[in-house]
Design brief:
Layout: E1 3-8, E2 14-18, H1 23-32, E3 40-43, H2 49-60, E4 64-68, E5 73-77, H3 86-90, H4 103-110, E6 112-116, H5 129-138, E7 141-145, E8 148-152, E9 161-163, H6 169-179, E10 185-189, H7 195-207, E11 210-213, E12 219-222, E13 231-233, H8 238-250, E14 254-258, H9 266-274, E15 277-282, E16 285-290, E17 295-296, E18 299-301, H10 310-320, E19 323-330, H11 341-346, E20 350-354, E21 373-378, E22 386-388, H12 392-404, E23 408-412, H13 424-430, E24 434-439
Parallel strand pairs: 2-14, 3-13, 9-10, 17-19, 18-19, 22-23
Antiparallel strand pairs: 1-23, 1-24, 3-5, 4-5, 6-8, 7-8, 10-12, 11-12, 14-16, 15-16, 19-21, 20-21
Helix pairs in contact: 1-2, 1-7, 4-6, 5-6, 6-7, 8-10, 8-12, 10-12
The protein binds uridine-diphosphate-2(N-acetylglucosaminyl) butyric acid.
Length: 440
């Protein structure tokens, strides 16, 4: 069965949406639960595909998982953790990137792990070399197999000094999850410090870990013998919040995003205001709206935290197609995140891609022939079109482009959006979007 959305553009989105926990944190906290000797309880868990996939993987490893999707409460009991049948794990090949984070916890608990080949959004090569190098430094032995990797630790896992070649979110999480019950102290320099990582550190500290974070991106973990379960409320999804902000702006509407947190979105809010969007902040969330003034073009570079999050970039591109003048974006996190602009061009956007670094942030893709900079000439009228979702954030961007466009669009492949946007169809309908879900 496939599903697509037929969207009639031109309606201002108005109303309230509620955010729940961040996709890029919840799945990691679920993995951390394996490290505990007792049950963990996670609150504010959204009903998204990534949670479903990680739940399946945990269940295959003997973890008891109970999810109350309405209340958003997930209970995880790792007491009977076991090595699964490889054929069962194989069924999850290509489903997500999270399985790689099972390495450290499974090595500690079972002495071995089999990790299926990874999936996730196709926005670059997304290698796992930093993960594997970090695990090797702890003493892990990795054997590549056709359908995944086998990993063992014949002499146990020992604390070590690791310098990240780049502040990778996943590799930093890998190191944290491996170090907290490794033997001795681990120091990670050039670590990523995204809010989702800081919340994972909150969870690990609740479990009994000793972790300190210095201002120079150095994280020190003093290994302890055991960890217990945790009770925690996930931080809200700042990538989803920014997506709704752009939806309000391009449709000339007003959306109150309940649960959005200023502290994790300061960089986004500055940019949103610079291009002509406005927002009001209170204790329960942020209301984003269009002032009616013409939007302004800007130069922008994505970067690791506290820079502009790459996941904020794709929906922002849609807003910039409506801004007067030339906007320049230099994407420095992924080498291949602009493929989605082809469909926007089909809808009438004027976007030119460049292999050059159009910015000053030091970038790994310099002179490497990756089209990782974009010039957006605005404003251009968007016209409805038939488009297919290539990745998660691009998918949401297509929805808001179609909502702002003149005429009708058909957006295919919307199951990808379900990986990270809870109840997005219901939310769009509640905001007044003219959409129809077609199932075949
Ligand atoms: N990288 C390597 N080798 C590695 C690991 C990463 O070269 O071993 C490179 C990647 O190819 C990429 C860069 O380092 O060019 C950054 O990757 P990072 O490891 O930081 O990203 P990730 O952990 O795979 C998470 C989020 C992404 C988000 C990035 C950056 C999850 C499940 N995914 O990915 O979220 O863009 O951090 O903040 O947490 C999304 O939600 O749409 C999404 C793609």
């Amino acid at each position: 069965m496939f599903e697509k959305l037929v969207i009639k553009g031109g309606k201002a989105l108005q109303g309230t949406v509620k955010l729940r926990g961040a996709k890029n944190f919840v799945s990691k906290a679920m993995v951390a639960s394996i490290l505990g000797d007792s049950k963990s309880i996670l609150h504010n868990v959204p009903r998204i595909k990534d949670v479903e996939i990680v739940s399946k993987l945990l269940i295959l490893h003997g973890c008891e998982v109970t999810y109350n999707s309405k209340a958003g409460i997930l209970e995880l009991d790792p007491e009977n953790i076991l090595s699964p049948r490889i054929a069962d794990v194989d069924t999850l090949v290509g489903a997500s990137r999270i399985p790689i984070l099972f390495c450290g916890p499974l090595l500690h608990k079972l002495g071995e792990a089999f990790i299926p080949n990874l999936g996730g959004c196709k926005i670059g090569d997304r290698p796992i070399d930093f993960h594997l190098e970090s695990l090797r430094q702890f003493g892990a032995v990795i054997t590549k197999q056709t359908n995944g990797i086998k990993i063992t630790a014949p002499d146990g896992l020992k604390g070590t000094k690791i310098h990240m070649p780049y502040p990778s979110v996943g590799a930093t999480e890998q190191t944290l999850l491996t170090a907290c019950i490794a033997d001795g102290v681990t120091e990670v320099s050039n670590a990523a410090i995204e809010p989702e990582i800081m919340d994972l550190i909150n969870v690990l500290q609740k479990m009994g870990s000793i972790i300190s974070v210095a201002t120079d991106r150095v994280i020190t973990i003093e290994g302890v013998k055991n960890l217990k379960g945790f009770t925690h409320t996930a931080l809200p999804d700042r990538a989803e919040a920014a997506s709704w902000a752009n939806a309000a702006l391009v449709t000339k509407g007003k959306i109150n995003v309940q649960g959005a947190k200023q502290q994790d979105m300061i960089t986004f809010l500055n940019i949103f205001r610079k291009i002509g969007g406005e927002f009001d902040i209170n204790d329960s969330g942020i209301t984003f709206y269009c002032t009616g003034d013409k939007l302004k073009a800007i130069p922008l570079e994505t970067d690791v935290h506290p820079g502009f999050l790459t996941d904020w970039m794709q929906p922002l591109v849609v807003s910039l197609t409506q801004a007067q003048g030339l906007s320049i974006i230099h994407e420095t996190v992924y080498e291949n995140r602009f493929g989605f602009t082809q469909a926007l061009a089909k809808m009438g956007a004027k976007i030119q891609l460049y292999t050059e670094c159009l910015g000053t942030v030091p970038c790994r893709f310099k002179q490497m022939n990756y089209k990782h900079s974009a010039a957006i000439f605005g404003s251009t009228k968007l016209m409805g079109a038939d488009i297919k979702v290539p990745d998660l954030r691009a998918g949401f961007s297509y929805l808001i482009a179609a909502l702002a466009a003149q005429g009708q669009s058909t957006v295919d492949g919307i199951d990808i959006i379900e990986r990270g946007y809870e109840f997005f169809i219901d939310k769009l309908q509640a905001l007044g979007a003219d959409i129809d879900l077609i199932k075949n």
